[in-house]
What we know:
By secondary structure, this protein is α/β, with parallel strands linked by helices. It has 13 helices and twelve strands. An eight-stranded mixed sheet has the order 6-7-8-3-9-10-12-11, with helices on both faces. Strands 2-1-4-5 form a four-stranded antiparallel sheet, covered by helices on one side. The relative contact order is 0.13.
Amino acid sequence: xxxxxxxxxxxxxxxxxxxxxxxxxxxxxxxxxxxxxxxxxxxxxxxxxxxxxxxxxxxxxxxxxxxxxxxxxxxxxxxxxxxxxxxxxxxxxxxxxxxxxxxxxxxxxxxxxxxxxxxxxxxxxxxxxxxxxxxxxxxxxxxxxxxxxxxxxxxxxxxxxxxxxxxxxxxxxxxxxxxxxxxxxxxxxxxxxxxxxxxxxxxxxxxxxxxxxxxxxxxxxxxxxxxxxxxxxxxxxxxxxxxxxxxxxxxxxxxxxxxxxxxxxxxxxxxxxxxxxxxxxxxxxxxxxxxxxxxxxxxxxxxxxxxxxxxxxxxxxxxxxxxxxxxxxxxxxxxxxxx
Length: 339
């Protein structure tokens, strides 16, 4: 496998009447062909804005991509013209959004919305596009597909609309699919069905995925690699099992501790919470932006911003941005508690 996508020092700002919003602050990473990356973090962490920046979907103004590169198959997407980027979107990189009701056009039939990209990117005739659209609807589990092409979005349930969005995303066989919290608006049962469908289609088609969510449980079920974001920065990244079992950033630990546990250890325990509030992104971050909420912070955390570095005693690719040694600090705290 080779590198499909390389993001280098991506910085995005929003210039509003209330002040400058420092939304994305130097995000860098690589995505391999066929890899599924889970991007997690609280609302306002920059996870969705960084994806929209890559796709050229940031409204300008008030948004502006100040710096960075997004290298996809040898091309910097940030340097493409609007027309060039329009040809990339859907054909090579597709995106599924959170709310299918607002993503689908309510006055156009499902068939019209499915065939539009096929005609534009694949050069199909209307007949060919209709045939392919029926195949796609059947692929994502919608029965009586030929009749449903004539239906409008309001005639579908929430889960079915999301299946339609997945079908549109997959229609032109993209190399990369970006899913921005696509199951958040769905109930748990439908969410599980959509996740299983996405896993199945990913394995069949061999595409790479970026799955953006605030739900660590979802990421654990779908991703190979996890990337934790806070205040527009990546604070931890690595293979899913390594990060989930042995977190090295205090923010990641806080997120994991906030999950309800169903095993014996969790029985009768109160849910943990991360103290304090997320930072005001209208204030330029100084130092480690998580330090006011971090019980393990050092004086250096207040003054200098840590960079992502390989965790010395973990697996290759497990990286954390921290001025403290979380593993040692937790062990020391545990010994003090026993003493």
